[in-house]
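chain below, 279 aa
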Amino acid sequence: MTTRGAGYLLGIPIDRKSLSSVIEESFQAVELKTSQRVFVCANPHSLIVAQYDRNLKSALTHADLIVADGVGVSFMARLVGVKIGPRITGTDYFHSLLNALQQRGGGRVFFFGSSQQVLDRIAKRFASDFPSLTLCGALSPPFGEWSELENHRMVEVINEAKPDVLWVGMTAPKQEKWVEINRRELNVQVIGSIGAVFDFYAGTYSRAPKWVCNIGLEWAYRFILEPRRMWRRNLVSAPKFVWLVLRRHIFRGDTTLTTTDGSKQEEIAHHGEKKLPSS
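prediction:
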Protein backbone atom coordinates (compact mmCIF):
# COMPACT_ATOMS: atom_id res chain seq x y z
CA MET A 1 0.00 0.00 0.00
CA THR A 2 2.91 2.37 0.61
CA THR A 3 3.85 2.39 -3.09
CA ARG A 4 0.75 4.40 -3.96
CA GLY A 5 1.83 7.33 -1.82
CA ALA A 6 0.04 7.22 1.48
CA GLY A 7 0.54 8.44 5.02
CA TYR A 8 -0.13 5.93 7.78
CA LEU A 9 -2.34 7.10 10.64
CA LEU A 10 -3.11 4.50 13.32
CA GLY A 11 -1.93 1.83 10.90
CA ILE A 12 -4.33 2.86 8.11
CA PRO A 13 -2.91 4.18 4.81
CA ILE A 14 -4.54 7.46 3.79
CA ASP A 15 -3.86 8.65 0.25
CA ARG A 16 -1.99 11.85 -0.52
CA LYS A 17 -3.97 12.43 -3.70
CA SER A 18 -5.96 15.54 -4.53
CA LEU A 19 -9.66 15.37 -5.35
CA SER A 20 -8.87 15.86 -9.04
CA SER A 21 -6.44 12.92 -8.97
CA VAL A 22 -8.95 10.68 -7.21
CA ILE A 23 -11.62 11.59 -9.76
CA GLU A 24 -9.25 11.09 -12.69
CA GLU A 25 -8.30 7.63 -11.42
CA SER A 26 -11.96 6.70 -10.98
CA PHE A 27 -12.94 8.17 -14.35
CA GLN A 28 -10.20 6.21 -16.10
CA ALA A 29 -11.39 3.00 -14.46
CA VAL A 30 -14.80 3.57 -16.06
CA GLU A 31 -13.52 4.88 -19.36
CA LEU A 32 -10.81 2.30 -19.97
CA LYS A 33 -12.32 -0.60 -18.00
CA THR A 34 -9.15 -0.91 -15.97
CA SER A 35 -8.91 -2.52 -12.55
CA GLN A 36 -11.72 -1.93 -10.07
CA ARG A 37 -11.42 1.08 -7.76
CA VAL A 38 -12.96 1.04 -4.28
CA PHE A 39 -13.40 4.40 -2.53
CA VAL A 40 -13.73 4.85 1.24
CA CYS A 41 -13.53 7.73 3.69
CA ALA A 42 -11.38 7.75 6.82
CA ASN A 43 -12.76 9.74 9.73
CA PRO A 44 -11.91 9.63 13.46
CA HIS A 45 -14.72 7.21 14.21
CA SER A 46 -13.80 4.71 11.48
CA LEU A 47 -10.11 4.84 12.39
CA ILE A 48 -10.91 4.11 16.03
CA VAL A 49 -13.32 1.27 15.23
CA ALA A 50 -10.69 -0.22 12.89
CA GLN A 51 -8.34 -0.65 15.85
CA TYR A 52 -10.77 -3.18 17.35
CA ASP A 53 -12.53 -4.57 14.28
CA ARG A 54 -10.25 -6.65 12.06
CA ASN A 55 -12.76 -6.77 9.22
CA LEU A 56 -13.04 -2.99 9.06
CA LYS A 57 -9.28 -2.63 9.27
CA SER A 58 -8.95 -5.00 6.31
CA ALA A 59 -11.62 -3.09 4.36
CA LEU A 60 -9.88 0.25 4.89
CA THR A 61 -6.41 -1.12 4.22
CA HIS A 62 -7.41 -2.82 0.98
CA ALA A 63 -9.43 0.09 -0.43
CA ASP A 64 -7.90 1.54 -3.58
CA LEU A 65 -8.83 5.13 -2.74
CA ILE A 66 -8.97 6.12 0.92
CA VAL A 67 -9.27 9.80 1.76
CA ALA A 68 -9.36 11.93 4.88
CA ASP A 69 -12.97 12.84 5.55
CA GLY A 70 -13.11 14.90 8.70
CA VAL A 71 -11.23 17.90 10.00
CA GLY A 72 -10.05 15.78 12.93
CA VAL A 73 -8.08 13.42 10.69
CA SER A 74 -6.45 16.28 8.79
CA PHE A 75 -5.61 18.21 11.96
CA MET A 76 -4.15 15.28 13.88
CA ALA A 77 -2.14 14.10 10.88
CA ARG A 78 -0.53 17.55 10.60
CA LEU A 79 0.05 17.67 14.35
CA VAL A 80 2.00 14.41 14.42
CA GLY A 81 3.76 14.93 11.09
CA VAL A 82 1.96 12.31 8.99
CA LYS A 83 1.65 13.53 5.42
CA ILE A 84 -1.77 12.80 3.89
CA GLY A 85 -3.87 14.34 1.15
CA PRO A 86 -6.41 17.14 1.55
CA ARG A 87 -9.75 16.57 3.20
CA ILE A 88 -12.20 15.02 0.71
CA THR A 89 -15.74 14.27 1.78
CA GLY A 90 -17.99 11.58 0.37
CA THR A 91 -20.18 14.37 -1.00
CA ASP A 92 -17.19 15.91 -2.81
CA TYR A 93 -16.36 12.59 -4.45
CA PHE A 94 -19.98 11.78 -5.30
CA HIS A 95 -20.73 15.03 -7.12
CA SER A 96 -17.32 15.34 -8.75
CA LEU A 97 -17.35 11.85 -10.24
CA LEU A 98 -20.93 12.12 -11.50
CA ASN A 99 -20.18 15.52 -13.02
CA ALA A 100 -17.13 14.05 -14.77
CA LEU A 101 -19.25 11.23 -16.19
CA GLN A 102 -21.95 13.72 -17.19
CA GLN A 103 -19.38 15.68 -19.18
CA ARG A 104 -18.21 12.40 -20.73
CA GLY A 105 -21.74 11.94 -21.99
CA GLY A 106 -22.72 8.70 -20.35
CA GLY A 107 -22.34 6.17 -17.57
CA ARG A 108 -24.42 3.65 -15.67
CA VAL A 109 -25.03 4.21 -11.95
CA PHE A 110 -26.55 1.99 -9.25
CA PHE A 111 -27.54 2.98 -5.68
CA PHE A 112 -27.44 0.25 -3.04
CA GLY A 113 -28.56 0.97 0.53
CA SER A 114 -30.84 3.17 2.61
CA SER A 115 -34.65 3.00 2.46
CA GLN A 116 -36.92 2.80 -0.57
CA GLN A 117 -38.23 6.28 0.23
CA VAL A 118 -34.73 7.73 0.08
CA LEU A 119 -33.94 5.85 -3.12
CA ASP A 120 -37.13 7.14 -4.77
CA ARG A 121 -36.15 10.72 -3.96
CA ILE A 122 -32.63 10.11 -5.23
CA ALA A 123 -33.98 8.72 -8.51
CA LYS A 124 -36.15 11.77 -9.08
CA ARG A 125 -33.33 14.23 -8.46
CA PHE A 126 -30.75 12.16 -10.34
CA ALA A 127 -32.79 12.25 -13.56
CA SER A 128 -32.83 16.05 -13.38
CA ASP A 129 -29.23 16.59 -12.33
CA PHE A 130 -27.54 14.07 -14.63
CA PRO A 131 -29.63 13.63 -17.80
CA SER A 132 -26.75 12.03 -19.70
CA LEU A 133 -26.31 9.28 -17.12
CA THR A 134 -28.38 6.13 -16.71
CA LEU A 135 -29.73 5.19 -13.32
CA CYS A 136 -29.63 1.46 -14.00
CA GLY A 137 -30.84 0.36 -10.59
CA ALA A 138 -31.56 1.13 -6.95
CA LEU A 139 -31.92 -1.48 -4.22
CA SER A 140 -32.83 -1.12 -0.56
CA PRO A 141 -31.46 -4.13 1.33
CA PRO A 142 -33.30 -5.88 4.17
CA PHE A 143 -32.91 -4.41 7.64
CA GLY A 144 -30.43 -6.17 9.93
CA GLU A 145 -28.25 -9.11 9.02
CA TRP A 146 -28.67 -10.97 5.73
CA SER A 147 -28.31 -14.62 4.86
CA GLU A 148 -25.72 -15.71 2.31
CA LEU A 149 -28.53 -16.48 -0.10
CA GLU A 150 -30.04 -13.00 0.28
CA ASN A 151 -26.63 -11.44 -0.21
CA HIS A 152 -25.95 -13.53 -3.31
CA ARG A 153 -29.27 -12.48 -4.83
CA MET A 154 -28.55 -8.78 -4.19
CA VAL A 155 -25.12 -9.07 -5.80
CA GLU A 156 -26.78 -10.75 -8.78
CA VAL A 157 -29.29 -7.89 -9.09
CA ILE A 158 -26.46 -5.36 -9.12
CA ASN A 159 -24.41 -7.28 -11.68
CA GLU A 160 -27.40 -7.80 -13.97
CA ALA A 161 -27.86 -4.02 -14.10
CA LYS A 162 -24.27 -3.66 -15.39
CA PRO A 163 -23.37 -0.42 -13.56
CA ASP A 164 -20.13 1.46 -14.08
CA VAL A 165 -20.44 3.03 -10.62
CA LEU A 166 -22.00 1.48 -7.51
CA TRP A 167 -22.83 3.82 -4.64
CA VAL A 168 -23.18 2.03 -1.30
CA GLY A 169 -25.03 3.85 1.46
CA MET A 170 -25.35 1.99 4.74
CA THR A 171 -24.23 2.76 8.27
CA ALA A 172 -20.48 2.61 8.76
CA PRO A 173 -18.69 0.27 9.17
CA LYS A 174 -21.29 -2.08 7.66
CA GLN A 175 -20.94 -0.57 4.20
CA GLU A 176 -17.14 -0.79 4.06
CA LYS A 177 -17.11 -4.37 5.29
CA TRP A 178 -19.84 -5.38 2.83
CA VAL A 179 -17.86 -3.95 -0.07
CA GLU A 180 -14.66 -5.70 1.03
CA ILE A 181 -16.42 -9.06 1.27
CA ASN A 182 -18.25 -8.73 -2.06
CA ARG A 183 -16.03 -6.60 -4.28
CA ARG A 184 -14.56 -9.55 -6.15
CA GLU A 185 -18.06 -10.76 -7.04
CA LEU A 186 -19.22 -7.32 -8.19
CA ASN A 187 -18.68 -6.57 -11.88
CA VAL A 188 -18.42 -2.84 -11.29
CA GLN A 189 -15.53 -0.52 -12.12
CA VAL A 190 -16.00 1.95 -9.24
CA ILE A 191 -17.53 1.25 -5.83
CA GLY A 192 -17.97 4.11 -3.37
CA SER A 193 -19.02 3.77 0.27
CA ILE A 194 -20.59 7.15 0.91
CA GLY A 195 -23.07 6.59 3.76
CA ALA A 196 -24.89 9.79 4.69
CA VAL A 197 -24.51 11.18 1.16
CA PHE A 198 -27.64 9.22 0.24
CA ASP A 199 -29.66 11.25 2.77
CA PHE A 200 -27.97 14.53 1.84
CA TYR A 201 -28.67 14.02 -1.85
CA ALA A 202 -32.24 12.87 -1.23
CA GLY A 203 -32.85 15.85 1.02
CA THR A 204 -33.98 13.72 3.97
CA TYR A 205 -31.14 15.21 6.02
CA SER A 206 -29.66 18.62 5.35
CA ARG A 207 -25.92 19.03 5.01
CA ALA A 208 -24.25 21.90 6.84
CA PRO A 209 -24.02 25.22 4.98
CA LYS A 210 -20.90 25.61 2.88
CA TRP A 211 -19.32 28.15 5.24
CA VAL A 212 -19.73 25.72 8.15
CA CYS A 213 -18.04 22.98 6.12
CA ASN A 214 -15.24 25.33 5.09
CA ILE A 215 -14.29 26.11 8.70
CA GLY A 216 -14.36 22.45 9.66
CA LEU A 217 -17.46 22.47 11.86
CA GLU A 218 -19.72 20.18 9.84
CA TRP A 219 -19.39 17.60 12.64
CA ALA A 220 -20.90 20.10 15.11
CA TYR A 221 -23.77 20.90 12.76
CA ARG A 222 -24.63 17.19 12.36
CA PHE A 223 -24.32 16.64 16.10
CA ILE A 224 -26.84 19.42 16.79
CA LEU A 225 -29.30 18.01 14.25
CA GLU A 226 -28.82 14.33 15.14
CA PRO A 227 -27.54 14.08 18.73
CA ARG A 228 -28.85 10.54 19.27
CA ARG A 229 -27.13 9.30 16.14
CA MET A 230 -23.88 11.26 16.42
CA TRP A 231 -23.15 11.42 20.16
CA ARG A 232 -20.96 8.33 20.23
CA ARG A 233 -18.81 9.56 17.35
CA ASN A 234 -18.34 13.02 18.83
CA LEU A 235 -18.20 12.31 22.55
CA VAL A 236 -16.59 8.86 22.60
CA SER A 237 -14.67 8.15 19.38
CA ALA A 238 -13.27 11.66 18.89
CA PRO A 239 -11.49 11.90 22.28
CA LYS A 240 -10.23 8.31 21.87
CA PHE A 241 -8.91 9.21 18.43
CA VAL A 242 -6.96 12.23 19.69
CA TRP A 243 -5.48 10.31 22.60
CA LEU A 244 -4.53 7.23 20.57
CA VAL A 245 -2.90 9.28 17.80
CA LEU A 246 -0.82 11.19 20.37
CA ARG A 247 0.06 7.99 22.22
CA ARG A 248 1.11 6.04 19.17
CA HIS A 249 2.66 8.72 16.97
CA ILE A 250 4.29 10.97 19.57
CA PHE A 251 4.61 9.16 22.90
CA ARG A 252 5.16 5.77 21.20
CA GLY A 253 3.25 4.03 23.94
CA ASP A 254 2.65 0.31 23.62
CA THR A 255 -1.01 -0.64 23.66
CA THR A 256 -2.93 -3.86 23.63
CA LEU A 257 -6.22 -3.74 21.79
CA THR A 258 -9.18 -6.07 22.02
CA THR A 259 -10.55 -7.15 18.65
CA THR A 260 -14.20 -7.88 17.95
CA ASP A 261 -13.61 -11.59 18.57
CA GLY A 262 -12.46 -10.79 22.09
CA SER A 263 -8.79 -11.69 21.56
CA LYS A 264 -5.89 -9.50 22.58
CA GLN A 265 -3.53 -8.31 19.85
CA GLU A 266 -0.13 -6.81 20.58
CA GLU A 267 0.84 -4.08 18.15
CA ILE A 268 4.07 -4.12 16.16
CA ALA A 269 6.14 -1.29 14.75
CA HIS A 270 5.36 -0.20 11.19
CA HIS A 271 6.92 2.83 9.51
CA GLY A 272 7.56 4.53 12.82
CA GLU A 273 4.16 3.73 14.32
CA LYS A 274 2.18 0.80 15.60
CA LYS A 275 0.08 -1.55 13.55
CA LEU A 276 -2.04 -4.60 14.28
CA PRO A 277 -0.84 -7.79 12.62
CA SER A 278 -3.01 -8.80 9.69
CA SER A 279 -5.57 -11.50 10.20
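The CA atoms of residues 41 and 67 lie 5 Å apart. The chain has one domain: 28-210+221-264.
thats it, cya
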